[in-house]
Amino acid sequence: MKKKLLFALTCLLLPASYAEAAETEPLTFSIAVAGNYYFESSHTTESGTHFEGLSGFFQAVSFSVTPKVEYTIPCLTADNALMKDNHLTVNANLEITPVSLTPNLSLSFTPLALLELKAGSKAGSGWLGMSEYSFEKQEYEDLAAFNHWYLYNYASATLMFDFGTIWEGDWHHIITTASYEIAYQKLTGTDRIWRWLASSYPMADGWVYTQHYYLGYMMPVRVSMIGVDCALMGNYKSSDFGVIDKSYEGDFMTITISPMVQIELGSSGKDKLILYGYIVGRRSFAEKWENFDKEPLYTKNGREFYFDNIGAVWKHIF
Predict the structure, then answer these.
(1) Distance between CA atoms of 247 and 252, rounded to whole angstroms?
(2) What mean pLDDT, rounded, does the chain reach?
(3) What is the pLDDT of residue 81?
(4) Per-residue pLDDT at 244 exceeds 70
(5) How confident is the model at residue 198 (pLDDT cuts 50, 70, 90)?
(6) For residue 282, which of 21, 74, 41 has the smallest C-alpha distance?
(7) Which among 2, 161, 197, 210 counts the fewest CB atoms within 10 Å?
(8) pLDDT tops 80 at residue 29
């Protein structure tokens, strides 16, 4: 397992205003099953921005199941196009992987058809993939499950627009969204840098951000949407990484580009399949990269794009 599991679910499933537009029941239950297949891509010592090809066709696989319950309440509605569907939604889900459990509780509010505000919190722990770094041993040391917790508290705002609202027609739904999320992340019981779910990069306590930009085309056919998502994420402060903040560039911005296809399964609208791929822009280093344990000791000298994984999410609404 190379990166944080199930990142695709938060990146590729659109806000409820679009993704679940057909739902009218106030209480809904759903389940999402996701799998990722990771390719191997070696680091190079090339500086600046560059692309690194595949060095192997298999690195790892990951799998997760996420049951979810949502309760939606009409709120501050008005008799106009911008406010007639205003609602408040309480969302609770539990991400289950073979090595971890991560419950997530959030509250979202749509004060306008073009805007969604959201706040939430999640806490995860697991049997593998949770570790802190020892500079003395120059390696990650595993932490005991449920004695330590990954905490992530967040708030976000999402702007969204469907060109079909001003250009009528079944084939005119060009969807755009832009979101900004601010969060505080922490691994309890340690003041060192750490890893969560075997991420391939060091992480640190502190304030972090994620920006998402999505462009999609929605169609009234079985292949109901195609699009691409771009995510920009990182720590606000380089000093969160302590003694390696300068050499490692702790406030480096990771970039992911994710083309995706959404397929409707059946005619009920209750089953969707999302297929996607990930191109990632990570740090490249001046030193020859050996393994994950040595990475905190290296000096960042550029940005390296590579093809990370392909994946699929099946979602069923009960």
Answers:
(1) 11
(2) 90
(3) 81
(4) yes
(5) low
(6) 41
(7) 161
(8) yes
Structure-block tokens of residue 101: 């459990």
The CA distance from 101 to 268, in Å, is: 31
CA distance 307 to 124: 27
Q: Average of pLDDT values for 72-95?
A: 91
What per-residue confidence (pLDDT) applies to 21? 42
What Å distances lie between residue 283 and 53, 69, 199, 209, CA to CA?
15, 38, 14, 17
Q: What mean pLDDT is predicted for residues 133-157?
A: 95
**What pTM, to 2 d.p., does this model score?**
0.90
Burial of 111 by CB count in 10 Å (0-12 exposed, 13-18 middle, 19+ buried)? middle
Asked whether 107 and 120 are in contact (CB, 8 A), the reply is: yes
Q: d(Cα 38, Cα 32) in Å, to the nearest integer?
A: 20
Q: What is the 3-state secondary structure (H, E, C) of the chain?
A: CCCCCCHHHHHHCCCHHHHCCCCCCCEEEEEEEEEEEEEECCCCCCCEEEECCCCEEEEEEEEEEEEEEEEEEECCCCCCCCCCCCEEEEEEEEEEECCEEEEEEEEEEEEECCEEEEEEEEEEEECCCEEEEECCCCEEEECCECCECEEEEEEEEEEEEEHHHCCCCCCCEEEEEEEEEEEEEEECCCCCCEEECCCCCCECCEEEEEEEEEEEEECCCCEEEEEEEEEEEEECCHHHHHHHCCCCCCCCCEEEEEEEEEEECCCCCCEEEEEEEEEEEEEEECCCCCCHHHHHHCCEEEEEEEEEEEEEEEEEEC
Give yes or no for residue 199 having a pLDDT over 80: no
- Work out the average pLDDT over 114-143: 94
Q: How far apart are CA 125 and CA 105, in angstroms?
A: 16
Q: Are 195 and 169 in contact (CB under 8 A)?
A: no
What average pLDDT does this structure show over 205-223?
Answer: 96
Identity (one letter) of the amino acid at 102? T
Residues ≥6 apart with Cβ < 8 Å to 250? 204, 235, 237, 238, 239, 240, 241, 244
